[in-house]
From TrEMBL:
Transmembrane segments: none annotated. Gene3D superfamilies: Endonuclease/exonuclease/phosphatase. GO terms for molecular function: catalytic activity. It comes from Macrosiphum euphorbiae (potato aphid). Pfam families: Exo_endo_phos. This is Endonuclease/exonuclease/phosphatase domain-containing protein. It comes from the Eukaryota. Residues 5-191 form the Endonuclease/exonuclease/phosphatase domain.
Length: 200
């Protein structure tokens, strides 16, 4: 499988940096005391088109790519787990909302990562379509609310795929499979998305 753009979460690497390894460029930021950490890996096709990147925190990084007709912004997110308190969750959402303010209205913004949320199966407005997975939880409600307020659609729910191509995390012993990682695009760009499936 050829990778063009890959988002990383919970890297826990000892260093932060921007470097090349073969045909791939890696931009990443470590978390405090080796915790959290996010990064983006770009094939050279995209790696040479990076015009800027902003490291907001150990949970949010934004990459700006030169593209036509509009620039492309990739925001990689690592949301706290369900054990985190609401204040910590809201702090991350506030940080995510700050990033698109640095773009132009016509730019294409993609937000992807580990949201530690379940939006569930079934249509919920234009943000969640028919093909989610599982039972929606409280964090899923918050993600849907964020998507609605900011005009994003959750692309994982757009396409009919086998359930084995929808789950993104399984519990130890394979006692449960969940869809907690999502790719969000602006609603006006959703027709550019042709497929969204997982390879767990």
């Amino acid at each position: 499988m050829k990778l063009e753009i890959l988002g990383l979460c919970e890297t826990r690497w000892p260093n932060s940096g921007d470097f090349w390894s073969g045909n791939y460029r890696m931009i990443h930021f470590q978390g405090k005391n080796g915790q959290c950490g996010v990064g983006v890996v770009l094939h050279k096709t995209w790696g040479v088109k990076v015009t800027n990147y902003i490291i907001y925190s150990e949970r949010i990084i934004m990459i700006q790519l030169e593209a036509e007709p509009n620039d492309l912004f990739i925001i990689q997110v690592y949301m706290p787990t369900s054990r985190a308190d609401d204040e910590e969750i809201e702090e991350v959402y506030a940080g995510i909302e700050e990033q698109p303010k640095l773009t132009k209205g016509k730019d294409n913004v993609i937000i992807m990562g580990d949201w530690n949320a379940v939006v569930g199966e079934g249509i919920d407005g234009r943000e969640v379509r028919k093909y989610g997975l599982g039972q929606k939880n409280v964090r899923g409600d918050r993600l849907i609310e964020f998507s609605r307020e900011n005009s994003y659609v959750i692309t994982n729910t757009l396409f009919k795929e086998y359930k084995r191509r929808r789950y993104t995390w399984k519990m130890p012993g394979d006692t449960g499979r969940y869809q907690i990682d999502y790719i969000l695009v602006k609603n006006r760009f959703k027709n550019q998305v042709k497929s969204c499936k997982t390879y767990p």
